[in-house]
Write a structure and sequence with these properties.
The protein is mainly beta. The protein has one domain. The protein contains two helices and 13 strands; from the N terminus they run βαββββββββββββα. It has a seven-stranded mixed β-sheet with strand order 1-2-4-6-8-10-12, with no helix packed on it. The chain has a six-stranded parallel β-sheet with strand order 3-5-7-9-11-13, with no helix packed on it. It is globular, with a radius of gyration of 16 Å.
């Protein structure tokens, strides 16, 4: 079963949801996901996602996440390995480690741990250079 993203823009509406874990639901073990998935319940274990994983405000996740894009509005304790972007939203709390080429922490978001910034495979393959601010003479 697939759900369409109910965003207002055309590009956002093309994102397909493969499912969700709602509040009041607890899962212990490994969760493998092929599409965009939302967690609002409690998960203890590993989450492996090929696309976007959203931890909603009610989420309490403990373990390891391997994914492409991870958006956190709830609580996460563990290690995140992301090929793309990790976003900590204003009510999000992350404790542990993040391995990602891009980390965004919105005002109000909390991160307590270690961050390892990785080179994006897309950026290195296309030869993109990221400028570093030069010191004026």
């Amino acid at each position: 079963m697939e759900w369409k993203w109910s965003g207002s823009s055309k590009s956002a509406s093309s994102e397909e949801w493969t499912g969700f874990i709602d509040q009041g639901v607890s899962l212990e073990g490994t969760l493998q996901i092929t599409g965009t998935f939302r967690v609002n319940g409690a998960v203890k274990g590993n989450i492996i996602s090929e696309q976007t994983l959203v931890l909603g405000e009610g989420a309490k996740v403990e373990g390891q996440i391997e994914g492409n894009r991870v958006v956190i509005s709830g609580r996460f304790d563990g290690v995140i390995f992301a090929k793309g972007r990790v976003e900590i939203q204003p009510k999000g709390v992350v404790t542990g480690e993040i391995h990602s080429p891009c980390l965004v922490i919105e005002p109000g978001g909390i991160f307590d741990g270690r961050c390892h910034m990785l080179a994006s495979s897309d950026a290195t393959a296309s030869g993109v250079t990221i400028p570093i601010r030069a010191v004026a003479p």
